[in-house]
Design goal:
The protein is about 30% helix and about 30% strand. The strands form four sheets. A four-stranded mixed beta sheet has the order 6-11-4-7. Strands 10-9-8-12 form a four-stranded mixed beta sheet, covered by helices on one side.
């Protein structure tokens, strides 16, 4: 046994995100002390329950083992990344399709409008309630795989080349999302409290 979890967090997706997904991303961000973390999708496979967790049970919480990177991004680049992960493209390609595929963030909140069922538009990005500064530089931890989001048969939303180049440059050698999670929880001995990282509103 690695630790006993004192608080449970549900995987259920609400208009403010998934508590379990948020807890998981907060843990990943803490691994490398990043100012912001972005997951391509919630990354989580199950609710976080009260009780004992072994190293193996920790791994079961994560839906897969994802590539990780960390480096400096401007606010404008971070906005571009979130637009890629959220907005329907000019050719109709949709990176989300289902709320469970909404990206999860830590250290940054975002607001979207659902203007048709399963179609979303990024409206704003904030940090502690203040608008994201496009000219500022942030240390950003990124976890995810673009296998499904770029797949022509599925989402067909290629990652912008400038962001892909940065992700490759910033790849963390010898690490992946599950090893980062184990490293974080070995120190904290708890899945951290979640944040309300997302606001979904209905509109046109």
């Amino acid at each position: 046994m690695l630790f006993t979890q004192n608080t449970a967090y549900s995987i259920d997706m609400t208009n403010h995100g998934s508590a379990a997904a948020s807890s998981l991303m907060n843990a990943l961000r803490a691994t490398y002390d990043a100012s912001i973390a972005v997951g391509y999708s919630p990354l989580v496979s199950t609710s976080i329950y009260c009780g004992e967790y072994s190293k193996q049970q920790i791994l079961w919480v994560m839906a897969g083992n994802y590539a990780v990177s960390q480096g400096e991004y401007t606010g404008a680049e971070l906005r571009q990344m979130m637009e890629w992960l959220v907005n329907v493209k000019d050719n109709g390609a949709n990176p989300i399709r289902h709320r469970n595929y909404m990206p999860v963030t830590s250290g940054m909140e975002y607001k979207v409008t659902e203007y048709e069922q399963g179609k979303f538009r990024l409206e704003e990005l904030t940090i502690n309630g203040a608008p994201l500064d496009d000219t500022a530089t942030y240390t950003v931890f990124v976890a995810g795989t673009d296998v499904w989001i770029e797949n022509e048969v599925y989402c067909n939303c290629p990652m912008p080349e400038n962001l892909k180049a940065k992700r490759t440059e910033y790849a963390i050698e010898g690490a992946e999302s599950r090893s980062c999670l184990k490293d974080s929880l070995a120190v904290s001995k708890q899945f951290p409290a979640p944040s309300e990282y997302l606001t979904i509103v209905q509109g046109e």
